[in-house]
Amino acid sequence: MWHKSPHPAFHPLPHGPDTFSALFVAALLATLFIKVGLMLRQRHHVRARRDQVPAPFADSISVESHRKAADYTCARMALGVVDATVGAAFVLALTLGGGLQAMHRALAGWFDPVGLAHGIALLAALGVLGWLIEVPFALYRTFVIEKRFGFNRMTPALYAADVAREALLAALIGLPVLAAVLWLMGAMGEQWWLWVWLFWFAFNLLGLFVWPTFIAPLFNKFTPLADEALRKRVENLLARCGFRSRELFVMDGSRRSAHGNAYFTGFGAAKRIVFFDTLLDKLSPAEVEAVLAHELGHFHHRHIWKRLAVIAATSLALLWLLAWLMEQSWFFAGLGVDDGAGSTAAALALFALVLPVFAFPLGPLMSHWSRVHEFQADAYAARQASAADLAAALVKLYRDNASTLTPDPLYSRFFDSHPPASLRVSRLRAGT
Ligand SMILES: [Zn+2]
């Protein structure tokens, strides 16, 4: 049973701060080595198969497209290796390197170190710092890699406008949410984790309503689907699948990227189906119908609700864990924070920094679960629309998105939320 002592009294545990530091560094390095190792494997595997289109795709994908996909994958893996390494160094610098401690101390010059303003400033500063570290990678990805392979449609001006809008949203929405969470952590006594969880979950549900109608239109233009023949087709499909007719929109995805997509968002009255204009340009109406049937499959199997339930349970467990860790002096000292020991903001910051390190082994489990869902959605699409059309659509999307047809199986098991193309297409062609 978890019990909170009346004062933030810190008692050393059998495993002291040094043991925890060592464990943390070991986990950080292990995670980095596995990540980098898998990315290098993927690079090697894809490069070795660069000149040979796999047999099932031989008549639908040219050698040039296949080579382009291989080069695109290799370029992204190379950037991924640098990104992962810099990310690990960043986490190390903030924790054992004393970065967070120094920020905590510096901000204490402006704000009362036990006050709400200090906590908000600390977490906001951390957010800005993390964003700054990622900026060069994001720029390189968009203006070098995506541009080289002909995917980027973004001008530097649009990019800057996006950044400004995102920063404004982060400040307008993120800062009040942060303030509310820190306030609940301080004011709700030993059950604060339950209150924060309720608040966080309600906020996320609200987001599902607000995002499609209010936030997404800030970044893209949504116009009602004008193509009458396609609209009829989609409405027939919805009726056949037992879905109420929805608003159908086309999004100007081509403003930013040549990658195509379709999605289904929102709940209740905010529910809508969105097609990227790039998708409609590439696929025939029958193929668009099959892709949408796949999306409806996710709804039919309640994948969204299952995912939400898992997220809710996980976040409750994590908040409970954080509440327990905040009571442990070794958690702060072991991660290089003495000044802010016991501070809710410092605990939250440390938790956010080190959680991905310790949660890394869960990645393959989540990916596996997601791939099971993809197969279910494909099977649903094959029943409600046409398996052949979905297979044809997937081949086109793989080709036009330069997604590799020859992923390294181990890399794929770790990171891919979607099953390899060859598996999906062969299952669809086999009619399962
Ligand atoms: Zn899917």
Keywords:
disordered N terminus; mainly alpha; 16 helices; 432 residues; binds zinc ion; 69% helix; four-stranded mixed sheet
Give your account of this protein's structure.
The protein has a 4-stranded mixed beta sheet with strand order 1-2-4-3, with helices on both faces. Helix 1 (17-48) packs across helix 15 (409-415), helix 4 (116-148) runs parallel beside helix 12 (344-359) and helix 9 packs across helix 13. It has helices at residues 17-48, 63-94, 99-108, 116-148, 156-187, 192-219, 228-240, 277-282, 285-300, 303-325, 329-333, 344-359, 363-384, 387-400, 409-415, 421-430; strands at 222-224, 247-251, 262-265, 272-276. It is globular and about 65 Å long. Helix content is 69%, strand content 4%. The model is unreliable at 1-12 (pLDDT under 50). With 432 residues, the chain is mainly α. 28% of the residues are buried. Zinc ion (ZN) binds next to helix 9 and helix 13.
Draw up the topology in text.
Layout: H1 17-48, H2 63-94, H3 99-108, H4 116-148, H5 156-187, H6 192-219, E1 222-224, H7 228-240, E2 247-251, E3 262-265, E4 272-276, H8 277-282, H9 285-300, H10 303-325, H11 329-333, H12 344-359, H13 363-384, H14 387-400, H15 409-415, H16 421-430
Parallel strand pairs: 2-4
Antiparallel strand pairs: 1-2, 3-4
Helix pairs in contact: 1-2, 1-15, 2-4, 3-4, 4-5, 4-12, 5-6, 6-10, 7-9, 9-13, 9-14, 14-16
Bound molecules: zinc ion.
